Protein 1
Amino acid sequence: MAAKAEAGPAGTAAVEAYLANAREEHRPALHALRATIAAAAPDALEGISYGIPGFKYRGKGLAWYADFTAHCSFFPGGTARNYRAELEGFHLGKGTIQFTPDHPIPADLVTRIVRDRMAQIDGGGSAKARR
């Protein structure tokens, strides 16, 4: 997350404001994604960075998510590439997974992706690459 992004209580308030302004039909999916990331990374701090909600882990960007006109996006960085086969049916970018409220990313997969990203930050490299 950018250095000027607020984390902690102020960051949480900014995230809640962002979600309150998200498209009504996208809000439940974004809230669910937020909760899944938070559960997978309980020590991460949330806030707004790059104009979208995200989480910072050990001072580094962990994952972000956002509301767009026709979809929602989950931004776990390059870690998403490690799960290409499991993400079949989702539109993937270099570090982005697009989804819709009627076709969300499975929570268990989000958890594994977030934990893989945490392992990368911890210096352990990609959990998928170690398998």
Protein 2
Amino acid sequence: MIQGRIFISYRRDDSAGYARLIYDRLNARFPKRVFMDVTGIEAGADFVEAIEQAVGSCVALVSLIGQQWLATGGRRRLDDPADFVRLEIAAALKRNIRVIPVLLRGATMPAAEELPPDLASLTRRQAIEFSDADFDHDIERLIRALEWELGEIEPRQTEAPARRYWLLAVGVVVIFAIIGLSVWRGNRGVGPPGALTTQSPSPQTTPASEMESAINELGGALQGGIKNLPGTAAGPQTQSTPGAGDRQFKFDPVGRWLITTQGTVSASMLVNLKAGGAYEILNASGAFSGFDRSGTWSFNQEDRRLVLLPTGGTFAFAARITEKQGEGFYASDPTYAGVTYLFKRQ
């Protein structure tokens, strides 16, 4: 497991209160690995040098952006080359460190032309919006993004490989048992040397054919068993799972869908995917309640990935359709392991 550090970048007069709340929650999840200037820099230390060292040693930087982050009183603080916030973010972007913008209390992401050249790429980083009314949900989204970056998300299928090997070992034993049974049955019809036999086995009942048939049946049983182990695709064996050359089902996104989550996140939304490529969220709850109610959607037929791009451009929804379930479809989240979506046409 990667023991990475997290750096929180913020302005005291713009987001100090939020910074303390976020620091406390992140420190509880990642103890002694969250760096913030008021707690991480010793008295008398060179602030700029300490900031550069801290940013250089972290794997993720959380940039808190409030309404006065860009400028206050008509003065653009980011234009100052010695501005600490500018130094922090520029150092992270230069080192290809994951930067997660967090927009506080209605703040919006500045345009690229509003930022100095060394911060322009910040606008291409997907932001997370925080609100007072839904802080707990928003901080969980941030924690999940950091867990993913730190490599600390434990997918539910981690126990499956060991069980697969166990099942494979059982299968090998059964195959050898079938071979032994086939040899015994074959020898039973052959008398001692010189004895006459009354009938010979037909091609349909030869030991080799029986063994091949049994092995094929066993292979099908093993495949079905592995498919339904805990942590693998859920549902009965009659479900079809997409793969190379799979043509058993097609997913047509156009129409109204009720999308619900299963796993670590609880949410649902009723969305209308229009034929022209636009979407409209008719109802949403839980983690989906913060999504923009309108935007555009796209669907990649190759990997069955559906993406909803909101009008505001702050948070996109992505899901990969993985299998059919009755009249609905299961989908996985390419960002968050452990989250499964169920699509049901309305």
Protein 3
Amino acid sequence: MRKIVCMGRVWVLWLALVPLVQGTAERAEAASACSIEVSPLTLELQVAPGRAQTASVEIRNTGADPQHIKAYCQDWTLRPDGVAVFVPAGRLPNSASGWVLLAPMEFDLAPGASQEVRYTVRPPAEASGEARTVAIFEAEAQQFVLRGARSRVIPRMGTILYVNTGPIPTPQARVVEFSVALKGGVLVVENTGVAHVRFTGRLEIRRSGELVQASDLKGFVILPAPFNQHRLEWPQDTFADLSAGEYEVTAILDCGGPSLLGARTNLVIEQKSAK
């Protein structure tokens, strides 16, 4: 059984890629029209510096119309709220975009058809640690009428690649902030290691040692520095059902390491005054 490491009041404790849409139409409207599926969505590769590794991903047209697809790599990172940000290849630290060759880079897909796209990853001889990229599969621009206005969108799907060129590192992280109040709560976790970390967890609320409420936390990924923090917020109604009293609130996280990670604080709910 893994132990929870405690340091005072604060305990020491990353993507499936959805359709990416550019244009003025709302994301939900555009995503529903995207008829391209990609498998797998995430790859974690172990490749020695100076060596090459080749495999493939599958692109499938699940719609009723033929699609012309372009394949290319981009850099990406995560905002503290977990939203992915994509930029041209080679712009971000720890970019593996220049290490990856895709073939074919352009092809047509009939309705119901699929295409294997081979990727070859070749880190340079001086590579060290983890790098990442995303292989983008972009369909042709499509026209939509939304609220009476014509909009242009570009459906895109992708496969995220993490490329590790050294020994698999042990996950390392710490809690930067954990606070709760009737108006909600905030948990900020920082990745202090050199590779991405995947978290799952739960929020427990106890009164006099007895568990009164528990809920699972949505899983998230934190990248290594410099984009190495994740901010999780609880809405105002999280503690609305609790009666007056003093509670102990604990966030427990699992990042796959030898120890569970978490933070603990107190919440005092005062008796509501009678009107």
Protein 4
Amino acid sequence: MKRRATSVLGVWCLFLLVSTCAAYAASEDTASDSTGSFLEDPFSAPAGESNAGQGIRDPLEPYNRFMFAVNDKLYYYVLKPAARGYRYVVPEAARKRIKLFFANLETPVRFANCLLQAKFTDAGVELMRFVINTTGGCLGFFDPALFCWELGRTDEDTGQTLGAYGIGHGLYIVWPFFGPSSIRDTVGMAGDFFLDPFGYADIGIAARAGIMTFQAVNTTSLRIGEYEDFKAGALDPYTSLRHAYAQYRAVQVRQ
């Protein structure tokens, strides 16, 4: 399993290397329009990123727009119909319990990143939540830590940890299925995989893909309509999503 995970990480690193080279080539082509941009550190936090959230670089825009369109079609023709059928069969209360169960399984990721950011109080809260919800909450299907002890879940991941260390996004990337990301957050995604004990479970790729698909369908069933409303209010959904992603991640890093 570790060998398979290492292979996946290797493919990601290769893609990141190719993406970075393409970005530098694009920067050289446009040097006359953006003086000095080629000499900037691609991983430094852009000025104004923490305020406007629009400083993320997008030299791969043609590819990103294509992948945005692919993901858009996948949502409307695959994910949304599956989520609507699933919602018709499974009651909302059960779907919320399932979402809590998966969130409880991801506790080690949040706990480790709280420690890496020296947020020791939050790390303690995550540890207490895991113990309480795994035992008194029936393996995490319920959240007595919140409703009885007012211990709220933190929202930390490896991408945020890298941002807290001053590492900027690098380049904006839209991944198939996973959606908007960046070089920094893609590396963070790989880090989250290795921090998650579930990633070491020897259940096979097909089973893991099935679980991930089920989780995506369950989550989407609770949020049908949000993406449609977002697109309806945007003149250019691609640009709006890129800005919204950068703003959202900037707020998460600051918190």
